[in-house]
Structures are given as structure tokens and as C-alpha cells.
Amino acid sequence: MSIAVSSYRYRSRRSDQLLREKLLRLAREKPRYGYRRLQVLVEREGEKVNHKRLLRVYREAGLCLKRKRRRHCVRVGTPRPQLTAANQEWALDFAHDVLAAGRTIRVLSVVDAFTRECLALEVDTGFASRRVTRVLEGIIAHRGRPQAIRSDNGPEFTSRHYLSWALEWKVDLRHIQPGKPIQNAHVESFHGRLREECLHVSWFKNLFDARKKVSAWKMEYNEQRPHSSLGYRTPAEFASVALNSSGGKDVSSAHLENAGGVSHFPTALAAG
Questions:
Q1: Which runs of consecutive H residues, i.e. helices, occur in 104-152?
Q2: What is the fold, at CATH topology level, of the domain defined by 90-227?
Q3: Pick from 23-37, 46-60, 225-239, 247-261: least confident
């Protein structure tokens, strides 16, 4: 292969024993440090070492850490139930935006899947599971307890506190399958309207300003904005009709009434 004999018979005479001993000593002091952090400690002691060499010695010494893999609950897709009344299912999810100063904010949305009402729009820089349950308890205080809550598998919705809260209030938790937001389509559609009509067109100076503008849009959405799937009625109007009716009103009936009553386009009246 046209290789010099002195090349392919070469064996390195450099010993890695000192580096190995140093890594073992530092690993005993910092047992949860990986090779990159150990390299920083080695260089702090005045020894410059190539990261590939250090990784090789690190592995040969048996110092590799075992990665802790997060255990995910197995979620099985189930057919969506036919909703016939309010408070049968609430949908929860988070939306994100940025303040003028560059700080990220989160918006917790709670939507009634039948009436399409926005029950809560909480804005803050972060949410813990206890904050989520406080918001839900505030809604329950004046609206009543839901039969089920649909959400994704975020840490706020899978914590022990949240699960125990649902068990105490006798609320059925319906977690969607990971990577399939379409299984929580009601809140995803609501977030589309929230982003287009509020978040993308508003400039939030601070957290207080964001809460004020989002709260104003929530009131407009519930009481003024026509909803196409509700026969172009507002969620508040549809909810009042559904609560006054004895057996409730499903969304399909709203489509039928809209087809025979309200025209979608201004040219429809002229054509008739």
C-alpha cells in the first residue's frame, strides 16, 4: 500500500497514566460531572489536553455516566365523545409570546369544548401545576365542575399534584398522544385565533400590559366575536341557548340552523 514500515509499525510511547489518575481524582470529587466539565477542571489545573484524547481516557477509565431517561406514560388514542352540554369537557393548553424587553410569557387557555367559551386566559412568565389548579378551581367556583379535562403531556398536566387534584375533584383526565395536537383540536383552533387577532398584532410593554390586552380580547371573543361553528353566534349567546334548552344543543344543529338562516357571503341575499 506504499506505506513506510516506520509508519504502520509506529506505537505511541506517550503514557496517559497521569491524565487517567487526574480524571479519577476529579470524578471522585464530582461524580455527576461529564467529560466536558472534567476537561474544564483539568485545564484549570494548568494542563492543556485535547478533548478527543480526554474522552478516550475518560471512557477507558469507565467514568461514563448513565443517562436517566424520562419515563413517559403510554397514551392510547380514543374516539372523541359526542358532547351535548357545557362542562362535559374542558380543553387546556399553553400559548407563548414575548414582551418588549425580550422576556417570554406563557398564556394558559381554558376552553369549553362544547360552547367554545374561553373560560380563562392567564398570563404569566411561568406556570406550576399548583397555579393551574388554582385557575381551574376559580372557574369551578362560579361555573361548576367539568366531567373531563383534555390536555397534552406537559409537566404541569402530569405532575403528582395535578393528578391528585383531579382524583379529589373526580375529574377525568384525557391526555392526548405525544406529537398529535390534533387530538386537542378545540384549543389548537382557539390558539390560532388568539395569535392572529391578539398576540401577533399587540405590543406588550410589560406583564401588566399583556394581561390587560389579553383579558380585553377574551371578553371580545366570548361576547362579540361571531363563531363560524356556532352558526355565527358568539360563544356567550350559544351558551345561553344551550343552558336554557332542556336536552342541550350539539354543534351539528348549529351548522344546520346556520345553513338555513344566516348567509355566509353578502352575495347570497342578492342571488336569492
A1: 129-143
A2: Nucleotidyltransferase; domain 5 (3.30.420)
A3: 247-261
